[in-house]
Amino acid sequence: MKVLWISNIIFPDACRALNLPIPFVGGWMQAGAKNLIAHSEHDIELAVAAIYSGKDLKELTVNNIKYYLIPNKEETLNHYFKIIKDDFSPDLTHIHGSEYPHSLSYVNACGNNNVVVSIQGLVSVYSKYYYGGISKRNLMPTLRDLLRNDSLYFQKKRMFARGKKEVELLSKIKYVIGRTNWDASHVWAINPDSKYYFCNETLRDSFYDETWNIKNCEKHTLFLSQAHYPIKGLQQILEALPLVKRKYPNVKIYIAGNNFLNVSKLKRNGFARYVQKKISQLNLEENVIFVGMLDEKQMVKQYLKAHVFVCPSAIENSPNSVGEAQLLGVPTVASYVGGSMDMISDGETGFLYRFEETELLAYRICQIFDNEEISQTLSIQAKAAAEKRHDKKNNAKELYSIYKDILRND
């Protein structure tokens, strides 16, 4: 079976072969690809097409996967996708993610026969929550935003425009793969005639090898895997933190990603200005720490160091960050949004709270800080649930079964 994947990232193996920077996100896709090939008993010949910054179509093969790297010019995407389809002649095409323009370009260029789309996020829905509950008057553009035409308003507008293309794509697609009731409901709302398949995701390899231990963590610390724009909910953690500080004045938030506050005022965007002001107003300067961009193994170490992992997003589908935290056994608190309720059973495999209820967020954090028995119970039960959800072999077998079903029916 010849399968073509359309990916929104270049896999690490291909990046190494071409001396390109290895992306900090999306490593789970390469892990999933390797497991798919192995557990299909090598019945699958896989090619992966991805966008890159070069000027010409590039081809290479690394570790039994063929890669096509496509120049990032929307006006030529259709042309290159036709070339790739003719060259590789896939039996089935699997588009990973509906939220990027190139996903629609492939279908427009090559048709929808034997094409399946995996839902990652849904920008057509996410755009509604872009400000993360912050009022517009508190997100006024900075000089940097005006000069670059990159205010949060324009960022939301661009996401909304991408969402229109996403809806167009899903309206044309006959087969969809998802993993939550949330994404299933939105696909159904857009295209009730599409066939929906459920398949969990395989995560990055390193997260299967370690286990959180309360004795080895840094007590009274929180970890956020990203926080660079309002949807990710950093502002909610900041609102909750003074309540936590009453009992735990040494509480720390470690945040992965570039320190978007540590730039000159001329380069600071509207969200950074808002966050900086909030930190100052709440006297949190000593409690918020950015740890920089982290690779896979560094992320594992940062998770294991945390006392609690928090996912305070305004919207999510099924955040891989929650899956990673649970797979390691890190006690987790997450906002009750999107598909998070499919990943966490409240009080059993983590704690859920309504996004706006920062008091409950603070209370849940303190419950874990207070009680080692609660921490251990959440850790053990979350890890068991995540090991089942993210089982490499089962997920690869399920995906292979989905491919065969599509080829039988289309």
Task: Describe the protein in words.
This protein is of the alpha/beta class and 410 residues long. Helix content is 43%, strand content 17%. It has 15 helices and 14 strands. The strands form 2 sheets. It has an 8-stranded mixed sheet, with helices on both faces. It has a 6-stranded parallel sheet with strand order 11-10-9-12-13-14, sandwiched between helices.
Question: What distance lies between the first and last C-alpha atoms, to the nearest angstrom?
Answer: 15 Å
According to CATH, what is the class of the largest domain? Alpha Beta
SS content category: alpha/beta
CATH superfamily annotation of the largest domain: Glycogen Phosphorylase B
Query: Whole-number radius of gyration?
Result: 22 Å
Number of strands: 14
Largest β sheet strand count, sense and barrel closure: 8 strands, mixed
Number of helix segments? 15
CATH architecture of the largest domain: 3-Layer(aba) Sandwich
Task: Please mark out the parts with pLDDT under 50 across 5 or more consecutive residues, or reply none.
Answer: none
List SSEs in N-to-C order.
EHHEEEHEHEHHHEHEEHEHEHEHEEHHH
Overall pLDDT level = 95
Major sheet strand order: 3-4-2-1-5-6-7-8
Estimate the global geometry from the Cα principal axes: globular
| Count of structural domains | 2
Portion in helices: 40-55%
